[in-house]
Write a structure and sequence with these properties.
Helix content: 40-55%
Distance between the termini: 37 Å
Number of helices: 9
Number of domains: 3
Structural class: alpha+beta
Largest sheet: 5 strands, mixed
Strand content: 15-25%
Number of strands: 10
Shape: globular
Oligomer: single chain
Strand order of the largest sheet: 2-5-1-10-7
Order of helices and strands: HHHHHHEEEEEEEEEEHHH
Length: about 375
């Protein structure tokens, strides 16, 4: 399934609609996040209730497990009796789940159903219009001994671009993957798959990079010794002139149309990372967003543990407490080291606070059979 189509036909139109209605992509992100969370609430409710019911049944499950562990120790030197005990234990567990009307995998299916929508949301917030779009294709320059292996395959992976007026299009560059001898010239061209974005090609900046996707804060090594780029008759066309064997990527980089848009205390929704790469100053707004997201993780853990019985095993209880303490700072540090645009962090924060509210609403109600 091409999840970019879900982003293109579902998430981005919603973002554009609320942006036009509310006048800001920031409010649009919050409203779209709220709308998606409401749509997915029945699945979230089922998943949370299943988890809560399993936690409530843990003491009884532990009794069955302890009894089986005793049998394992007793019959460890008698394989036939051990196999019989294992079969009996599995049968008892199945009967226990059926009697209590609970499925140990009940929380997995809703999560799998939600996953494509969550990925499409992330792609929307992590791409255009908040972040530059790099339409990218791999290049391998061959030496003369491998010249017969020359290939020029299809088109690059589609990428989405949204302009400042909300018009969107899906683009590729042709050719896609190429394997060519040194000294060869290759004509590259931006090709529109669909959409109504006009005059995008003149914004393209053709670049070579050692990584598959160009990101504005990354420093790519100088690849001039491997190849050069010449602009063709129009900016949508570039000519790659190869020099010597090597592997790299060619990008048609299109700048973000709304990356500098401000919202509340955020000075730019496309701003990425805790440090401004140009000035070296601290991006306070990004740091605040990361801390707010860490707070939502902590709150979610407190709500869940506050309405759940503690684990019967003291070691499990200690591990659960340690996870609740360590998870928020761990996630915050991970995001700071693997930065994402401020628009994505705003989505994380909005989604996190909505999740806390939904979890509280579900967990405070008694379990029903």
């Amino acid at each position: 399934m091409d999840l970019s189509l879900l982003t293109y036909h579902f998430i981005l139109p919603m973002l554009d609609f609320f942006k036009n209605a509310l006048g800001s992509y920031g409010w649009s992100i919050i409203v779209v996040t709220l709308l998606v969370k409401v749509i997915l609430y029945p699945l979230t409710k089922h998943q949370t209730e299943s988890m809560k019911k399993m936690q409530a049944l843990q003491p009884k499950i532990k009794i069955l497990q302890d009894r089986f562990n005793q049998q394992k120790e007793k019959y460890k030197d008698r394989p036939a009796k051990l196999k019989e005990a294992q079969a009996t234990f599995q049968k008892e567990m199945m009967e226990f789940y059926q009697t209590n009307k609970v499925n140990p995998l009940g929380g997995c299916l809703p999560m799998l159903i939600q996953l494509p929508i969550l990925i499409a949301l992330f792609w929307a917030f992590n791409g255009s219009p908040f972040k530059p779009v790099a339409v990218s294709a791999p290049v391998e320059i061959l030496d003369q001994d491998h010249a017969l292996a020359e290939k020029r395959i299809g088109k690059s992976k589609p990428q989405i671009y949204v302009d400042s007026e909300g018009k969107k299009g899906r683009f590729v560059i042709t050719p896609g993957e190429v394997k060519i001898p040194a000294g060869t010239k290759v004509d590259y061209k931006i090709f529109k798959l669909q959409g109504d974005v006009l005059d995008v090609s003149h914004k393209a900046r053709w670049q070579l990079s050692s990584s598959p996707y160009y990101v504005s804060y990354a420093k790519s090594p100088d690849l001039h010794e491997l190849a050069d780029i010449e602009i063709g008759e129009s900016p949508e066309n570039a000519i790659l002139v190869t020099k010597k064997p090597g592997k790299f990527f060619i990008h048609a980089l299109i700048p973000a149309s709304s990356g500098d848009e401000s919202f509340l205390f955020i000075s730019g929704l496309g701003k990425t990372g805790p440090i401004n790469p140009d000035s070296g100053t601290l991006n306070i707004d990004v740091v605040i967003l990361v801390l707010l997201f860490a707070l939502t993780i902590w709150l979610s853990g407190k709500v869940t543990s506050g309405y759940s019985p503690p684990p019967a095993d003291p070691k499990q209880a200690q591990m659960q407490k340690m996870m609740q303490t360590m998870m928020p700072p761990f996630v915050a540090i991970m995001i700071l080291f693997f930065p994402v645009p401020a628009g994505v962090l705003l989505y994380f924060v909005a989604s996190g606070f909505i999740q806390v509210l939904q979890t509280w609403l579900i967990m405070r109600k008694p379990i029903t059979s």
